[in-house]
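Help! Submission page says 'invalid entity' but I think these are all valid:
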Amino acid sequence: MERLKARIRDIPDFPQPGVVFKDITPLMRDPAALRLAVHQLLHPFLGEQITAVAGMEARGFVFGALVAWELGVGFVPLRKPGKLPYEVHSVSYDLEYGSNTLEAHTDALTGEDRVLLIDDLLATGGTAAASCELVERLGAEVAGCAFVVELDFLGGRQRLRDYRIHSLVHY
Amino acid sequence: MERLKARIRDIPDFPQPGVVFKDITPLMRDPAALRLAVHQLLHPFLGEQITAVAGMEARGFVFGALVAWELGVGFVPLRKPGKLPYEVHSVSYDLEYGSNTLEAHTDALTGEDRVLLIDDLLATGGTAAASCELVERLGAEVAGCAFVVELDFLGGRQRLRDYRIHSLVHY
């Protein structure tokens, strides 16, 4: 995936000193790279009878919507608290400092759904694990999780060992 | 656009008492309705030689990414402050209570670009006007703005009278 890596930019000391942020906006800006990324994200799941794609706010909305579109299924946004207007299920999870919450509409998925989760980044796996829990709370099945970038040294994959994980680019 | 209206849900008193929120998550969840919306969003601009699509965080990421994909051009995220890791231009604008800021990477667009702006909702036009200013600050041209929903009674279109405005569903 060197073609994708060439469109991912290192930003030192963002969002805090000592962290090297992987900026995927150049990849979104390049239609050929974006097309490659989206097709590589969904490819392992083509035989999986996916019925919906869920994406995590906010960069997961870009890749998630495109994967849903290409699979011909609907898109379910997983959002930060207070953003979704209808009745929600919530899952909270710990971050290095503090905690976060993700919400989904209670009627977004049913027991018939097989869901592919999409985000741009797998880091510690906290967001992804909460997303899987949220999908299951709605009664649906997680068919897998796909990420553009995986930061191997943060061990997020271990936290998700019950799920099929697919990442395009590893650091 | 009755087919789209049938997938937009009224949520009374969200985000505050007296406001009826137009919930477009059922539209995103229905692949046929989503396909119709995306094709209707881009249709008037097919002859406009669009070189990039910009979408406003966060629901604009869903529709913006899909319009960019279908036009075969790149996607530029316009984000809330502190989210974009590289050098940014910022535009602040007033809300009914308080103010907001939108940011774009300084290298996201150039003087060669003709940009289509996409968001889910045209309300007072504050976010859209700031987005147009941001695109122009980067040296690019705004070819137009397209919205899934326009709240006519809020008069946002008057605030954007220098631009070509296209909305699918009016309330």
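Support: the input was valid. A stray whitespace character was the problem, and the output above is from the cleaned input. The longest helix of chain B spans residues 59-71.
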